[in-house]
Amino acid sequence: MLFLCCCQARLARWQEQQPEGQSSRPVVTVVVQGAEQIPAARAFVEFMYRQHLPQSATQQLLIDVLQLADEYDVQSCAVACCQHLSAMQLEWNTVLRVLWLPPACSESEVFGGLFSSASEQLQQQLGDLEVAWASDEGRQRFLALPLKGVQLLLSDDRTRVAYENTVLVATTMWLQQHSSSLTSEDKKRLAELIRLPHITPLFASSVLHSCHG
């Protein structure tokens, strides 16, 4: 774990709040998990005293900064990151990272616009599940989704399949990869999104047999 001490001076806004005559200067310490997070930590601290994000910030950097803003509860920075990202055409990796954010984020008004943008991209990329599942890329994208992403996709009236069998196969394979991180309630809610009456009994039994085989 790396410890990045980003600022010891020139935090004008903070210095103004210091008692008159006080010589000590504020120190901001941001804890990051690896060297790849250092650019985000620097951008995060810079925002706190300049109130702006780098003009050339990539979506990956903005997501990294957003996670720091959420972790350190700097709402103004989180808002700025969400506004920047919501104004962009989200890349697939960005969509995934948004969907993988902690559940509390999706319930916050600050993240509302960003989650809406990610949901729209999810629908555009995987909304035709029949077509998506027929390609290697589409299958990998579906299987990489968090539970929230699968639920959003299967509960959206716009999601299309020629046969509900595809939904059963996709969901079953997804569960095989993510089952250990799910609760019984999670699995129950996911199962409720599959329209079982539209699946042929023979096909359902063969899929379930292969799972236990």
Q: Tell me the number of helical segments per DSSP (H or I, 4 or more residues long).
A: 13
Summarize the amount of helix as a percent range: 55-70%
Sequence of secondary-structure elements:
EHEHHHHHHHHHHHH
Percent range for β-strand residues: 5-15%
The neighbouring-strand order within the major sheet is 1-2
Shape: elongated
Q: What is the C-alpha radius of gyration, as a whole number of Å? A: 22 Å
Unreliable runs: 1-16
Biggest sheet features: 2 strands, antiparallel
Query: What is the average of the pLDDT values?
Result: 84
Please report the distance between the alpha carbons of the first and last residues: 42 Å
Q: SS-based structural class?
A: mainly alpha
How many beta-strand segments?
2
